[in-house]
Amino acid sequence: MMLLSKLRSLFFGLRRRSQVESGMTDEVSFHIEARAEDLMKTGASHEEAWRQARLEFGSLEKYKEEIREARGLQLFDEIRADVKYAARLLRNSPAFSLAAILMLALGIAANGSVFSIVNEVFFKKLPVKNPNDLVQLDWLRVQNSMFAGYAGDMRRDPASGLLIATSFSYKTFENFRDHNKALSTVFAFNPIVEPLNVVVDNDAQIANGQFVSGNYFVALGVFAVIGRPILPSDDNTNAQPVAVISDRYWKGRFGGSPNIVGKRISINGASVEVIGVTPPEFFGTKLGKAPDVSVPFAMRLQIAAERNWGKDWQWWVEVMGRLRAGVTREQVLADLRPLFEDGVRETWDMRPARYRTLSFEATRTVVPPLRVNDGSRGPVAMRRRVVPMLAALVGVVGVILLIVCANLANLLLARASSRQQEIAVRLAIGAGRRRLIRQLMTESMLLALCGGLLGVFFAYWGKDLLSWLPQTAEDLLAIHPGIDWRVVVFTAGVSLITGLLFGVFPCLRATKADLSPSMRADSNRGGIPRLLVSKSLLSVQVALCLVLLVGGGLIVRSVRNLLNAEIGFNAHNVVLFSVEPQLNNYNKVRAYQLYERLIENIEAVPGVQSATISGTRPITGGGWSMWVTASDDPNSRARTYVFVHNVRANFLQTMQIPLFRGRGLSSDEERNGASVAILNQTMAAQLFKDADPIGKRFRYAEAGEQNHTAFEVIGVVRDARYHTIDRENPATMYIPFSQGPSSGTFEVRTTADPAAAMPAIREAVRNIDPNLPLIDMRTQEDQIRDSIGTYRMFATFTTVFGLFAVLLACVGLYGVVSYTVTRRTHEIGIRMALGAKRSEIVRVVMRGIYVVTIVGIAAGLGVALVVTHSISSWLLYGVTSYDPLTIFLAFVIIIFVSMLAGYLPARRAARLDPMTALRYE
Amino acid sequence: MAQEAELLPGTLDLLILKSVSLGSEHGYGILLRIQQITAGALTIEQGALYPALARLEHQGLLEAEWGTSDNNRKAKYYSLTGAGRKRLKQEAERWNRNAAALMTALKVQEIG
Fold first, then answer.
1. Is B52 at the interface with chain A, CB within 8 A?
2. CA distance B60 to chain A (A)
3. Is B36 on the interface with A (CB under 8 A)?
4. pLDDT surpassing 50 at residue A520
5. Which of A235, A278, A449, A521 has the least CB density, counted as fewest CB within 10 Å?
6. Are A31 and B69 within 8 A, CB to CB?
């Protein structure tokens, strides 16, 4: 109550300030006049009465101030005066102010940007209606869990050590939807992993998509900005096929055309009508790539065609729901558990023949535990993966901000020292220490505020810069960025804290109680402890620089190692592109014929040396792996994990992988899908030890593959990379292309620049089938470069920030040394007069720098080693975390920079004229 | 010379509230009333009244209005708000309690 009245009074006071002031004057005048009149009534003369009245009243000004204080206006006045004074001071030293604000802006912008990524990944809720009511279902994969096929994410739960799975079978979803009581709606979706071939006006391009249940959009409360969303009536096999597209896809592919509703497009060959566009901030219910098109589950047979997922007996659907009012998640779990169990058993009964071997069944008898989780942010699969990366980013930008603070604190200390006399005088005539501190702090806060504002601008525009970051980081940035209030609050908070950090210490120091040394002209005393603080701050900066330089240097070397790695095949001059003819309803036989014709056409293109095809795209991080065994004993448990490359006969020659023993695939063998295989050295050694593998046999050792023909080994080749550059060569087998699925990647070796050949290759494909989209055409070298995106991103970050840090440290060192020389001019003059040589003066000045640098390096080394050790498992390649060469180089850079910083002031000191110096005060 | 040392903190506020409770009045009039009530026993520097009035108004215990005085001058008149009345009652009761306790304590000492 009182607070309210105080606020109201303050507000009124501020708004009608002049009224308040004149009111005060009037009131006080009235009082004195009334008193004077009373006194005159008792017989005093006019002058005496007035004098007496004024005396009795007391000091007008003092009481007026007290009135202002009582109304809360005093504080306001003081702060306003402080801000004006601070602004004037900053205006008067433009170089310092600009430098400080710029440094702050960069540091704060870096932190703001990283935080906005953290915000997107961890804090922001789904942009749907009432996200807090949403729940998301998953289950723990305990041993012997009763399922036959699974498609989707699995990630490890740190608490139980078990894998968490988010996919359910469609039957289970129907059970939940139709029979549950605790949820007001249950809806489902499936982010389609493979790209869809979307043909619009005879132009074929790849797009991302998701399946959704009929009630998906309604349950989420997401409305279409144009047209309508998918409704339950659309999720019916008898209904017209419809699709909803995302805002980004609408603007990108369709040019934001207003005629989008009713437009017919084809998805994987199925004709579909576009019925609506979702709002711009909607990105689906899963973090990561936002789906361009959403289609109802009822269309899965038309679109999925020849797929390995989407079958009724598989678990492939993600399920979420909305809580009823007042219902807890525990109650939901109790309600759903029996429905889940029924669904599990029914799905299990639908499994195909090959999963009905006794060994398969005997082990899978357990209904796994269901979990009901908070769904306000969607499923969390992606989050865990990026935690180490984000943590490292946060670390780097945090260090930068610390360096900026240390630098500014130093500069402010120096400035405060030069104002020491002024401050001492003010303290001496009665200014309160707290008042003075408040004023000095206002200067820092003003700097921090300006820096923060500028930083927000930088961060906002920097978002576009972030797009040149390599692809792996794209996952983080796919969800887009608007300015979220959390980011603004965070940036404001960081600015405030920064201002406090670098401001509080210098101003506490400057207003220390012991005034007399400062007021004296000979103010060299009291200088040494101050310098100790400055020097410590500088050492801290040097240490942090070392950490960044060493870390950055190691990562840069890792990138170079990766790019130059022995990958086992010739990656130069190779063009890659993938095709998925099943999207266009090619069956296996026709696909094969298509490939032959395509290769013929492509090899006819001038500049192309040879073309081949493989089932797996080299260096994408994905692939096909199987367990194999060389033993004839069916009960033997000796098996090896290998990676499978199904390839055309000329693959090994095109990729220039040398053959060590035996022979390559013949065209006949390849065409007929003969059960022959070529092993790489690692696999040969693992399966057959030292024996000659040629002619020997091995077979798949997986459930469901027992009847597959054994492979005969016909050759051995050199090891080569398979998934990613930074993982060693795994055991790999090369088998005929037709043994695997019919989608594949073309590898085309060109004689000259591969990028130049791309248009001609595209044309060659289009001549055969214009509806066949070329997926992701790029050179092999680019593929490799993109696969190490994380490394490159960090290499760039740490290098840029490392250099920035070194620059800051240099400026800081220069500032402090320069200031020291100025303050010790008198002393230098004395030394010179007493016969000191110029070189000696230089030595004295440089000594300070040596100490700072050496202490900084020593302290930094320890921290650097700890940091590099922690990143060594995932950011370093081919270098140890304590690589002496890199550390030595970092030392050299820092020492060189500090010498440079000290050179100018030292020279200035040496050039001093002794007479002038002696007279200097 | 400041005589505030004679005045315990808070008593001025109480006195002001009491004076104003007798009827709306301007600052000078309040001063006269206080001198009346306390029979001249408590003296304050006259100017000190005004910060106290401002404080009480700021806290919402008094409300102020500009009006005309007896001799046709512009003056600011203060009156008690509901909250002010409540505070006056509370403070008065507290004082009485404290005084009674103190008196009992002193009596006991006398006997002992």
1. yes
2. 5
3. no
4. no
5. A521
6. no
Residue that the structure tokens 């040629």 belong to? A694
Quick check: B108 contacting A, CB < 8 Å? Answer: no
CA distance A81 to chain B (A): 22
Phi, psi angle pair for A618, to nearest 5° = -65, 135
**DSSP structural state of residue A658:** P
Would you say A773 and A762 are in contact if contact means Cβ atoms under 8 Å apart? Answer: no
Minimum Cα–Cα distance from A36: chain B residue: B28
HSE-CB at A875 with a 13 A cutoff on CA atoms is 28
* CB-CB under 8 Å, A59 with B47: yes
Chain A residues touching B50 at Cβ < 8 A:
24, 27-28, 31, 63, 66-67
- Report the alpha-carbon angle A823-A824-A828, nearest 5: 150
Judged by DSSP in three states, A723 sits in coil
Q: Cα–Cα distances in Å, from A30 out to A48, A357, A423, B51, B66? A: 17, 107, 41, 16, 12
- Cross-chain residue pair B28–A23, CB shorter than 8 Å: no
User: Which residue matches tokens 């410590």?
Assistant: A536
Q: Is A5 within 8 Å of B27 when comparing Cβ atoms?
A: no
Furthest CA-CA distance within chain A: 137
Decide if B58 touches A, using CB distance below 8 A: yes
**Segments of A584-658 assigned E as strands:** 608-614, 624-629, 640-647
Give the 3-state secondary structure percentages of chain A, helix then strand then coil, rounded to 5: 55, 15, 30
- CA–CA min distance B96, chain A (Å): 25
Per-residue pLDDT of A569-601, as tens digits, reads 888 899 998 887 776 677 788 888 889 899 999
CA dist., res. A669 & res. A662, Å (int): 15
**What is the Rg, in whole angstroms, of the alpha carbon atoms belonging to chain B?**
16
Tell me whether residues A2 and B73 touch, CB distance under 8 A: no
- Phi-psi category of A430—alpha, beta or left, where left has phi over 0 and alpha has psi -120 to 50? left
Q: By three-state DSSP, how is residue A294 classified?
A: strand
Distance CA A859, CA A254 (A): 58
What residues in B contact A23, CB-CB < 8 Å? Answer: 66, 76
The DSSP string of A725-764 is TTSPPPPEEEEEGGGS-S-EEEEEEESS-HHHHHHHHHHH
Q: Can you tell me the distance from the alpha carbon of A159 to that of A122, in angstroms, rounded to the nearest whole number? A: 19
Q: How far apart are CA A559 and CA A447, in angstroms?
A: 39
pTM as predicted: 0.66
3-class DSSP state of A191: strand
Nearest to A746 by CA among A728, A727, A768, A724: A768
Between the two ends of chain A, the Cα-to-Cα distance in Å is 59
**Poorest-pLDDT segment among A207-221, A484-498, A662-676, B21-35:** A484-498
Question: Which long-range contacts (C-beta less than 8 Å, at least 24 apart) are formed by A44-49?
Answer: none
- Measured CA to CA, the distance from residue A47 to residue A50 in angstroms comes to 5
Residues A506, A819: Cα–Cα separation, whole Å = 15
Measured on CA atoms in the order A44, A50, A53, A56, is the torsion positive or negative? negative
Residue A612, pLDDT score: 92
pLDDT at B5: 42
Longest CA–CA separation in chain B, Å: 61
The span from the CA of A114 to the CA of A469, in Å, is: 13
A-to-B residue pairs, Cβ atoms closer than 8 angstroms? 82
Task: Note the pLDDT tens digit of each residue in A603-651.
Answer: 998 889 999 999 888 887 667 888 888 877 766 677 788 888 889 889 9
